[in-house]
Every structure is written in C-alpha cells, then in structure tokens.
Model the fold of this input.
Amino acid sequence: MTPGTPNPDADILVVGAGAAGLMAAITAGRAGRCVIALDGAKKLGAKILVAGGGRCNVTHHAVDERQYAGSSPHAIRNVLGRFGVERTRAFFAGLGVDLKQEDTGKLFPVSDDAHTVLDALLRAARDARVELRHPWRVGAISPIAGGFEVCREGEPGSLRAPRVILATGGRALPRTGSDGAGYDIARALGHTITPRVFPALVPLTLAAGHPLTQLAGITFPATISLRAPSGKVLAEFTNAVLLTHFGLSGPGPMDISRHVIGARLSGPGVTITMNLVPGLTPDRLDAALLSTRGLSVLRWLTHELPRGTPVPGLAAPGLPERFARLIAGHAGIDPVAPVTSLSRDQRRALVDAISRHPLPITGDRGFTYAEVTAGGIPLSQVRLDSMESRATPGLYLCGEILDVDGRIGGFNFQWAWASGHTAGSAAAK
Ligand SMILES: Cc1cc2nc3c(=O)[nH]c(=O)nc-3n(C[C@H](O)[C@H](O)[C@H](O)COP(=O)(O)OP(=O)(O)OC[C@H]3O[C@@H](n4cnc5c(N)ncnc54)[C@H](O)[C@@H]3O)c2cc1C
Done:
C-alpha cells in the first residue's frame, strides 16, 4: 500500500466501471496495484452492450481530434496520442477480441456481438485482480489525510485509498446509471463543469405535423449544414438521414446535433438546411436541370428513368416518390410538369428545395435518447499526461465526465480507452 492513508482499503478506488473506468482499473491492476472499482449499476457494462446496435463499435480506424468537440483540439489530440487505435486493437487482441474494420472505417469485434467486448473486459479486470463491487453507488468523495474517503450513497459504508479515479460518465442514457451525479462529486473536489451540459449524438425534433414527419421511415444520404445568422457555415456533415414521426434521426442528424443544440443555446438566428444531392452545388444542380429533356419533375426527382433513355442531366436526386412529391410541393411546382417547362424562378425554387431544404429544428430528444454528453469537466482542469486533477492531486478523471464528445463511429469509446488507460497507468505510478 502507498503509505499515508490511514487504513486504506486499496491503492486505487475507481468510481464508475463503464468503458473508461474498466480500462483504468485493468491498467492499474496490471501495474500491480490493488484496485477496487465501484459502480452503482446492478449489471455492469449496459452502455457497452447497447453500443453500435448491440455490436459495439469499439473504435475507428482513423481517429484524430477533428472528430471531437468540447475542450481544445490540442488537448484532445494530446490525450488521444497516448493510446491510439493500434494500441486499442492490440489491447483487445490480447483479450482474445479481434476487431474487423468495416467500409465506414468503424471497427467492431469479429463476433459482431457486444457481449464479447464486455465479457473480455470483465475477465481482464478479474485477471488483473481488480475487485468489482456493484451495485455500490458513490455519494461523495472526501479528501482525508494522505488520500480519499469514498462514501456510499444512501447506505452506510465507505472505502479509503490514496488515489481515486473518477469515471462516472456524463448524462446520456441515464437509466444505465450515468446520470451526471459525478459532476457534483467533482465540484465538491474543486472542479467546475462547463456552463452548458447538453445531449449530443441525439435525434432532432421538428414541429408536430411538419411535412417531413409524414414521411417517417424514409432514409437517404444528405449533407446537413448549420449556418450562423451571417450565413457562415458553422458545421456540416454528410451521412444518412432517417425521417421519423418526431423529426430526424440517423447518423447525419446525430452527428450535427451537438452543434445545432449548442448554437441554438448560444442565440437565435442559426439556420439548418439539408442538401439532398450531397456534393452537388446549387449551380451544378441547376445545370443538370437545364440539360434534362423529356422528363417530368417527379421523374427527375425520383430518377426513375425509362430503360435505355439517354439522360443528359445525369445528376438527379433519386428520391423516393413520396419525398419527391413533397419537394415539388415545397417548391410550389406541379410534380407532373415537364422539367423543360419550368421558368427560371421555378427552377431556382426547385434547386433550393433540394439543395437548401430548410430544417426548422425545434429541439432534441434529450439525454434519454442521446449517445453522449456535450460539456463536462474541461480538459484544462487535468494534467494531460496523467489525467490527474489540477484541483485535487491524487484524483484522476477519465471518459465522458470530461468535456469531450466525439462523432458517431467509435470515437467516444476511443476517448474512453485512451483517457482511461492514461489515468490508470498514471494513478498506478
Ligand atoms: C445507445 C448508445 C450507443 C452507443 N454506441 C457507441 C458506439 O458504438 N461506439 C462508441 O464509441 N460510443 C458509443 N456510445 C458512447 C459510449 O458508450 C460512451 O461514450 C462511453 O460508454 C463512455 O464511457 P464512460 O466510462 O466514460 O461512461 P459510462 O459508460 O457512462 O460509464 C459510467 C459508469 O459510472 C457509473 N456511475 C455513475 N455515477 C456513479 C456513482 N455515483 N457511483 C458509482 N457508479 C456510478 C455508471 O453506472 C456507469 O457504469 C454509445 C452510447 C449510447 C448511449
């Protein structure tokens, strides 16, 4: 035991045994430390099991700071660089979990089953002689001479150790136990939380009855753009969009959600539009329309070309028919009108309806449906080479409790592995 703490129960107490906490505990245990990991959940690893639609998207082949938001890119890069994708691959291979890369760049276990990942992590924790105690929900952490006392919430019982790793996650999917309680614990230990903590990777809502909600179930690729009142593009993502009865889901809307919510919280006047022909500018779309012969607007929008027809206007949106009718209606154009009959203004209206289709977002589905949390403890409050708190030495922070959130694609787990590994190895020194 590290000397100093009266009657310590462990060298290191890890609070929260999700992805980051498990990685930290395994790393510290492997370094020979006596580790107890505490978690309030009855069943461990709920988020790992639901991740990636039950397949667990463990990481991404190309991880860099540009795929994240929150704290400064420089600080995020610093931490990611300490435990990169190759080390994640090797770590899991060492646990008998080989990862395969899909066309999207996402890495999944070859089993396509998240249980493989969770079981391997729990086995690794046992092998590293980490004691996992749960349900054991922490209510407070108090500094004591030479370390910390970690108190159980609502029940008698406390544990002592010279070092504590706080890995309680954020507020996304609160039923898994990640309900933001860790923020209060961190505040009591001298930390501050970003002024705003809000859902990220979350579906977005439109007003009830908005025409797009009538098309629930339709999915298509699109570029979604968020613009400042000045017209400046603040964020842009190209990915699949799924229309739902409440609004927009799928990777495109989820990826841009944190930017939309953050911008709306900052002030009014931002606009959100989608381009249904990603990569095609309004000018090129207009040129495509101009060179189209012998097709109705509906035919052109749906790209339902008669077999063998030579098509000059190759770039057509290829929309499902119901969606095409909505687009024509939005532009105020009769869908059966021949493309060649459109006036200049009608063409412009149609191009706008396709390439700058307005998305009057009213809100989001909240933490219950969010995959991650935007906001948290700023990285400026930890030492990046160790994840040790600058406010309270001996306390280490890792995972989603920090102000870092990534895109869809395995980036959030990579953050958990990288920050967890750094915290675990530093706390073990
Ligand atoms: C539906 C869904 C799908 C996702 N899919 C992916 C994916 O495929 N790929 C990807 O990279 N990311 C994915 N994510 C995001 C990813 O799961 C998280 O970013 C990651 O799990 C964060 O890890 P963490 O350990 O920091 O926090 P968490 O996983 O939230 O773990 C925190 C742990 O702390 C415990 N805890 C909280 N408070 C206390 C307390 N007071 N006392 C004791 N214990 C406490 C909780 O019970 C929990 O077990 C998904 C998230 C969701 C919700």
